[in-house]
Amino acid sequence: MKRRVVVTGLGIVSPLGNDLASSWEGITQGRSGIGPLTNVADAYLDRFTTKIAGEVKGFDITADNELFGKFRVSGKDAKRWDPFIPLRPRCLVHGPA
């Protein structure tokens, strides 16, 4: 059975940029989003075997009121999350069913 799919838009949050245009520009220019970890508190840094990663910078997931409404998580509570958790709800919302 064939499934029909309609793509109504594209979006991306990546180490190369927080929107489609800047991420695509980084890809086509051959830039790497990989670099030294900067969003991890020094107290936690020694827990990692690597000190380099592709970090998303300048993105505040707590500003997405629609997303947090779906999960009933306030922006205040979201700011207490571990820095590696914020994108998980977005993947659940936009990921495969």
UniProtKB/TrEMBL annotation:
Record's keyword terms, sorted: Transferase
Keyword Transferase attributed: yes
Domain Beta-ketoacyl synthase-like N-terminal: 3-85
Pfam family, one: ketoacyl-synt
GO biological-process terms attached to the record: fatty acid biosynthetic process
GO CC annotations, alphabetized: cytosol
Root EC class: transferase
Enzyme Commission identifier(s): 2.3.1.41
SUPFAM superfamilies xrefs: Thiolase-like
Record's keyword annotation contains Magnesium: no
UniProt GO molecular function: 3-oxoacyl-[acyl-carrier-protein] synthase activity
Gene3D superfamilies: 3.40.47.10
Entry protein name: beta-ketoacyl-[acyl-carrier-protein] synthase I
Native organism: Panagrolaimus superbus
